[in-house]
Specification:
The chain is α+β, with helices and mostly antiparallel strands. The chain has one domain (31-285): paralog of FGE (formylglycine-generating enzyme), CATH 3.90.1580. It is 15% helix and 18% strand. The chain is built from 5 helices and 12 strands. It has helices at residues 31-34, 103-110, 129-142, 156-164, 173-179, and strands at 44-49, 52-59, 62-66, 86-90, 94-97, 151-152, 211-217, 232-233, 247-251, 267-271, 279-280, 284-285. The chain has a 5-stranded antiparallel beta sheet with strand order 1-2-5-12-6. Strands 10-9-7-11 form a 4-stranded mixed beta sheet. A hairpin with a 2-residue loop joins strand 1 (44-49) and strand 2. The model is unreliable at 1-26 and 73-78 (pLDDT under 50).
């Protein structure tokens, strides 16, 4: 069952890439030399592309426990999906955008701003999964990334790993209030990025403000015959056979979400062509070994 919101979603099919700027200038900085392998978790790197800065934080390769032991009943809205508890190993480190993709970043690459809640420092909203993928593809082209590398949406596992930043306990109460914009039932909308506290790796707004698209199709976490989660290495979500529809996982909750939705392991999903003022994205870069 698709998650519903208190407010109506704007459902618009993805049209075309016409807004994307052609003949863009070369990158201002050598992305490959700047976004090389980081030394430790939370290392910061900033690249400039066509005069727009993009700040990243380093997430090293590692193993973490994904999901939750909670039953997923939820205080409001019935059953919710916190993901089955299981170990995940990510064999390659990656750079993740320090903030959600802002409207300034989006406009510099795309040339138009689809957002309902307008502001250069606010995250871009009302973008479909296809829009986010197209943005990453265009930025990859403009930045002249080396062959075999790209900017792209994080996998669901990469997203949760970076959101947790080593944390094992779910956040609630004052701890959640410190890092997340959520629970606004008055349609106040998004806030400027990086106005709440960052996580332990220096990443802002992983919880709240806007739901964030991931690369993965939505699907069930694999379990063994006893119902326990199966360990995974570099998981990439459901296959087309497992999920024929274009259902994409989104994470983190948004400005009007309930508190239980704004957590590391809550698994939301939408149709990939759906747009609305609740969903945005950030992107990652995996350097060559």
């Amino acid at each position: 069952m698709l998650r519903t919101q208190n407010l109506a979603f704007l459902c618009v099919a993805f049209a075309a890439l016409a807004p994307f700027v052609s003949g863009a200038k070369a990158a201002d900085s050598d992305v490959e030399s700047i976004l090389k392998q980081g030394d430790k978790a939370g290392d910061r790197a900033v690249v400039s592309v066509d005069g727009t800065e993009f700040a990243f934080r380093w997430a090293p390769a590692g193993t973490f426990t994904m999901g939750s032991s909670k039953d997923g009943s939820g205080e409001v809205g019935g059953d919710v999906d916190f993901g089955v508890l299981h170990k995940v190993t990510l064999t390659r480190g990656f750079w993740i955008l320090e903030t959600e993709t802002t409207q300034k970043m989006w406009s510099a690459v795309v040339g138009e701003n689809p957002s309902k809640f307008v502001g250069d420092a606010k995250p871009v909203d009302t973008v479909s999964h296809d829009d986010a993928v197209a943005f990453c593809e265009k930025l990859t082209e403009v930045a002249k990334l080396p062959e075999g590398t790209k900017f792209g949406l994080p996998t669901e596992a990469q997203w949760e790993y970076a959101a947790r930043a080593g944390a094992t306990e779910l956040l609630s109460g004052a701890e959640l209030e410190k890092v997340a914009w959520f629970g606004d039932g008055n349609y106040g909308g998004t806030h400027d990025v990086a106005t709440k506290a960052p996580n332990a790796w220096g990443v802002y707004d992983m919880l709240g403000n806007l739901w964030e698209w991931t690369a993965d199709k939505s699907g069930k976490i694999a379990v063994d015959e006893d119902g326990n989660g199966v360990d995974a290495v570099d998981p990439t979500g459901a296959t087309d056979e497992e999920t024929p529809a274009n259902l994409r996982t989104d994470r983190g909750g948004c400005w009007d979400s309930y508190d239980y939705e704004c957590n590391f392991c809550y698994r939301g999903y939408y149709n990939g062509d759906r747009k609305g003022p609740y969903v945005g994205f950030r992107f990652v870069y995996v350097p060559k070994p």
